[in-house]
Specification:
binds flavin mononucleotide, 25 strands, binds manganese (II) ion, alpha+beta, UbiD C-terminal domain-like
């Protein structure tokens, strides 16, 4: 397997230069982006530190070790993909130049023609170093944190891979669903209606059959990205999709109980069954939008029959909270490019860029810039952009702007909304759309149906030729260079003679 990293835009025929979470951590350490914290408590410290990391741009990945009450070596890793440099490590991009562009270009390069690769079945994996069954199954034997102060318990599954096989097609889906320890061998999971995992569990319910399941709670950082990326089609296995990104098959071992393919790189694996007719309370849990949510008796329960784990196992954590948080930083690039790809596939031409801002949890706002080519083009883009596989779930605002507005610049987008939109003409409400019981703005009992506001902030088609001319922004750097002294902090001397002139520079 080639070990070289690729530069965005170069030949992408390469793979990331690591094979499992431990190799990834070694490399993150080598580039100075991994810190170790010893002695932090699972009750408060780990959650507090993780929330703090979310609030500081470019913060390191942190591995917690020597957690009180637990054996040394039983670890929790957080914020793996929280920086652009570590995303480059995960994806195999050389971290040089403008990393925002590098990440967007990487996804644009691979998603346009992604070739899924089926897993390669092998016979053994390091996680079989420890196999626990029967009375030895105890989920609390791992230092699962209480992530947010008001959480109703300990969540072992946050950055997880939940594997389920469609009983009709045989396709194995991987999704990320929160999982709370409800008992020594019981993990309560909440999987929202419409997510593929839930569609599959519902198929077992209809057949009145138990649903085999594997939850990987210590997972490599690329598989985690794949499993929480909204917009990968139903029927497309995320394992094959991730292999398409890596350009090499994922090595898997078949689960001894369920036959499900388990990535050999896994740290901690829970194997068992869901009885689809059993629904329980779970939560509250501090969710992605920044509020607590309890599932209100709608959670499924994984009955864990066996646990497999590596020596000195690592839980991977991504607890969310008020956005932006770790997954918002990395999903922004992937989801936005998926939406660009899906808009083009749906026949919407001349889309320049899409941005699902981290500040809106990648869901609550989708911004699209287009070069308007015909009457109705902006409205078409707005309607479709709000209902794509990558954007439909939990959406709220769609903003369409002209090509002169940079979708990544929220200040510019606000200016366009404020100056090119007439509310009566350009705001459109779409009702009865796909949300979830987690939606804070809709009444309980509204069946998770929400509405959407499409803001057409493009220059109106009828006025496009005589719309007022924007004041062109002259190169701010050049002007600033000339007038730099205006921004210099005075040294404390009040010297009225220190005048400056435009021609003479500082006197
Ligand atoms: C950190 C994190 C936690 C998530 N937790 C949940 C969850 O508890 N329940 C859920 O339905 N979706 C959750 N999601 C969203 C799903 O993982 C996401 O929609 C994914 O695409 C679902 O895959 P699927 O459609 O194949 O089931 C979470 C996403 C992230 C990034
Ligand atoms: Mn899926």
């Amino acid at each position: 397997m080639p070990k070289s990293a690729v530069r965005a835009g170069d030949d992408l025929d390469s793979t990331p230069a690591w094979h499992d979470l431990r190799e990834w951590m070694e490399q993150a350490d080598r580039i100075g982006e991994l810190r170790t914290v010893r002695g932090a408590s699972w009750q408060d410290d780990i959650g507090n530190v993780t929330a703090l990391l979310d609030s500081v741009e470019g913060s390191p990945a942190v591995v917690f070790d020597e957690i009180p009450e637990y054996q040394k070596g039983y670890r929790v890793l957080v914020n793996a993909n929280g920086s652009k440099r570590r995303q480059c490590l995960t994806l195999g991009i050389e971290p040089a130049g403008d990393l925002d562009s590098a990440l967007l270009d990487f996804w644009r390069g691979v998603l346009v023609d992604l070739q899924p690769i089926p897993p390669r079945v092998i016979n053994s994996a390091p996680f079989f170093e420890n196999s626990l069954e029967g009375d030895r199954v105890d989920l609390a034997s791992f230092p699962a944190p209480r992530w947010h102060p008001g959480d109703g318990g300990r969540y072992l599954a946050t950055a997880n891979l939940t594997l389920l096989r469609d009983p009709e097609t045989g396709v194995v889906n991987a999704g990320t669903y929160r999982g709370q320890i409800l008992g020594p061998a019981e993990l309560g999971i909440y999987c929202s209606p419409g997510h593929h995992g839930r569609l599959i569990i519902d198929k077992y319910a209809k057949r009145q059959e138990p649903c085999p399941v594997v939850s990987v709670v210590g997972v490599d950082p690329l598989l985690f990205v794949a499993s929480c990326a909204e917009g990968i089609a139903f029927g497309q296995s995320e394992l094959d999709w991730a292999a398409g990104i890596r350009k090499s098959a994922i090595d898997v071992v078949l689960g001894p109980k369920t036959g499900l393919p388990i990535p050999a790189s896994s740290e901690i694996v829970l194997e068992g069954w869901i009885d689809p007719s059993e629904l329980r309370d779970e939560g509250p849990y501090g969710e992605w939008h920044g509020y607590y949510s309890a599932s209100g008796g709608r959670s499924q329960v994984i009955k864990v029959e066996a646990i497999y784990h590596r020596d000195e196992p690592i839980i991977t954590g991504c607890p969310q909270g008020r956005p932006p948080h770790e997954d918002n930083y990395f999903l922004a690039y992937l989801k936005s490019v998926l939406a660009e790809t899906q808009l083009a596939a749906a026949g919407v031409p001349n889309v320049q860029a899409v941005w699902c801002p981290p500040e809106f949890g990648n869901r609550l706002m989708t911004i699209v810039s287009i070069e308007q080519k015909y009457p109705g083009h902006a409205m078409q883009a707005g309607l479709v952009a709000g209902q794509l596989g990558s954007t439909a779930y939990g959406g709220r605002f769609v903003v369409i702007v002209d090509e002169d507005i940079d979708v990544h610049d929220l200040q510019a987008v606000r200016w366009a909304v404020a100056t090119r939109m007439d509310p009566q003409r350009d705001a459109h409400v779409i009702t009865r759309s796909w949300s979830s019981s987690l939606d804070t703005a809709i009444a309980p009992g509204s069946h998770s149906l929400n509405s959407r506001l499409i803001l057409d902030a493009t220059r109106p088609w009828e006025q496009r030729s005589d719309f007022p001319t924007p004041i062109a922004r002259q190169s701010p750097e050049a002007i600033r260079h000339k007038w730099q002294w205006l921004f210099e902090v005075p040294d404390g001397r009040s010297d009225s003679s220190s005048n400056h002139s435009a021609h003479g520079g500082a006197s």
